[in-house]
Amino acid sequence: MRQDRIAFVGACAIAGCVLFTAPSAQQAAPGTAPVDQPRGLAPNLGRPTRPDDVVAPFDFDKYFIGTWSFEADAPDSVLGPGGMSKGTTTYRKLDEGFYAAVTEAKGESGSFTIAEQIAYQVESKTAFRSVTDSRGFSYIEAAEVGGNIGGDYNLFFSSAPFMFKGRTVRLKHRVAVTAPLVHKVYVDVSTDNGPFLHLSPWVFSKHP
Amino acid sequence: MTSRLATFALGAGLLVSGPSLAWAQAPTYTKDVAPILFKNCSQCHRPNEVAPMSLMTYDEVRPWARSIKARVTSGEMPPWGVGKTSLTFANDRHLSDRDIKTIVAWADSGAREGNPADLPPAPTYPGGWKFNSAPDVVVKMPVEFTIEPKGEYPMLDFYVPVPWTDGMKLIQMSEARPSNKAVVHHITVSLVTFPPGTELVNGQPFTRDTTGTLVPLDRRAAQISQSKLPSELQIPLAPGEKPDRLGSVGGFTTLLAYVAGRGFDDHPDGIGTPAMPGQYIDFNMHYTPTGRTETDRSELGLWFAKPPVKKFHFRTPINERQIVNGKPLNGPALSGADVEAGRVSQAAEGRREGLPPIPAYMADYTIESELAITQDISINGFYPHMHVRGKSAEYTVRYPDGRTQLLLEVPRYRFDWQERYVLTQPLKIPKGSVLKYRAVFDNSASNRLNPSPDKEVFWSEQSWDEMSLGWIEYTLDKQDLRGPGARTQQQ
User: Fold this and answer.
1) In degrees rounded to 5, what are phi and psi of residue B415?
2) pLDDT band at B4 (very low <50, low <70, confident <90, very high)
3) Which of B65, B306, B396, B441 pairs as cysteine with B389 (C-beta 3.0–4.6 A)?
């Protein structure tokens, strides 16, 4: 167990991901699935996948609800000074297909809060966010939501243009769901209708 | 302002004999940092490349100063996966301690630009290609392909005729470039030979039946054996020599593979993949849906070897015997004496269909594989390939006299940055040796790239399944293309 954890910490240090402790049931016999072990989003077919297999809709409730820790290493940008930011994001369900999330974060230039309301329409594979950031800007975003039979899902958010400090800003957030306990949010920003520049991913992790 | 900056430098511990001296001696971008970034980072960190941001100018680098410091200090950047090894690598891109200290001091002292006159010329990448010259030939996929948001795609092949007419050429360098990196899981480029009369329609091979109607070519039935290849592509055998896997046609017809972290191959002078008019370039495409409609039309750049050409470039995976979690799957371990005496059955090659699935939540699933070296070869490089459960890899060799040598350890394999490890000097491996490859897979929830730790993992090219391929790149010591009659002489 200890060796496993050390190896994992080492891997994360290299990959720059957020550290979290492996679940205590990690040492369960291979092939068994204790109830507290995380599970993926793709159906367990019990066989190799085929080209005609149907992708299950993204399950927002199963994946997001709860509290996630995050870490981001951002560059300086139109949105403010860069540097390391850490904090938590807590998702809760408001109604069927509607959610709220609150992010409490602390960065090198101070603390900030992000409040958002989210709508997810399973049938149309679309999502919407209304976001208010305590650093002084608000925006709305729409996303295509999809994935593949292996359980990798993406939410491709694009914002409407909004004004911040006299500049016209557009954001893109690609939420890449890669593992039951880890996802990344890739952020790109455009200023005054210029090209989109990458702002490095926010890496989220969750305790089971 | 000056005093504030000097105070900052003092706080960073950079002063030697006073604020003004420290300020003057602090590294600058133009003089100290740009040369490091140009040399070690620009190949990926430039516009339209695999890295998410360009680091080619001060304006591009300055906002990332703190992040660059953190990444180089941790060793995360530049990416380099070698752990223990007895060898040296030509593409070793890890930074020296001195370079790391320079970057740290620069970031800590305010990440100044410095004197523009100190800036060295930025490296040039003609046409955006990774090598510093334009390709001799550029080949595009024959069609733009649309990737729909569905579950999975099988491997797809698109063929293009070899576009030159003046005989066989050795391709010394090559680069494959997707037009849409988000959907391309891999590109494998090969040279294939179809029967006379084959016609291409939208990159797919057809032949005409007895009525003259175009019908799809049965590619498996049409496979060309080595004996039917043009003489330029044959590896003649010495008297009494048996055909073997190391010299077979399959070893030199794969040009290169594009995956995250690679897709550009270069070989020593005079060594390359042979290609000639009448053959076809096969873009074997593996697309992974992202969840929305995407398109791709990948392209290929080729650079030819200059005379004198010397040898074909070969590659093969180490997979003749496989031992899974300590249990042999296909025959006993290879004996050096048997290999040296030629008592090795090539039919024992490992097949992924025979590999048991990786159980759910299993953290250390291990496959050990072996390859008998049946003639003298020289290894030029290694390329371990696994998917998202890949954890570590290791190559060793056992020489005919019983000595063993650790060749390469990759302690933290990364699916999102797969490296090809190119040797500084070729490594001679004599006949009778046994190469070994050990791959470890992590299907636990601790694996941050594992989408489904609750599922057993099967074996296929799909990224959510697994592969275990410990490739070696090599040349045959007996081959010499430098003149008539010298081409196949034993050394």
Assistant:
1) -65, -30
2) very low
3) B441
Name which residue leads in pLDDT, B47 or A126: A126
Contacts 24+ apart (CB under 8 A), B119-127: B119/B29, B119/B30, B119/B31, B119/B34, B120/B34, B120/B35, B120/B38, B122/B34, B122/B38, B122/B42, B122/B56, B123/B38, B123/B39, B123/B42, B125/B42, B125/B43, B125/B46, B127/B301
| Residue A76 near residue A84 (C-beta atoms within 8 A) | no
Of A148, A177, A200, the CB nearest to B289: A148
Nearest to B163 by CA among B200, B130, B133, B131: B200
H/E element holding B467? Answer: none
d(CA A205, CA B460): 29
A33 — phi, psi (to 5°)? -135, 85
B286-291 average pLDDT score = 91
What is the predicted ipTM?
0.81
Report the distance separating Cα A138 and Cα A79, nearest Å.
Answer: 11
Structure tokens belonging to residue A114: 């992000």
Strands B321-324 and B299-304: unpaired
- pTM for the complete prediction? 0.85
With a pLDDT cut of 70, the percent of chain A lying above it is: 83
Q: Which residues 284-313 in chain B show a CB within 8 A of chain A?
A: 288-292
CA of B446: which chain A residue's CA is closest? A22
CA dihedral A35, A36, A42, A48 (to 10 degrees): -70
Give CA–CA dist A38/A60, Å, rounded: 15
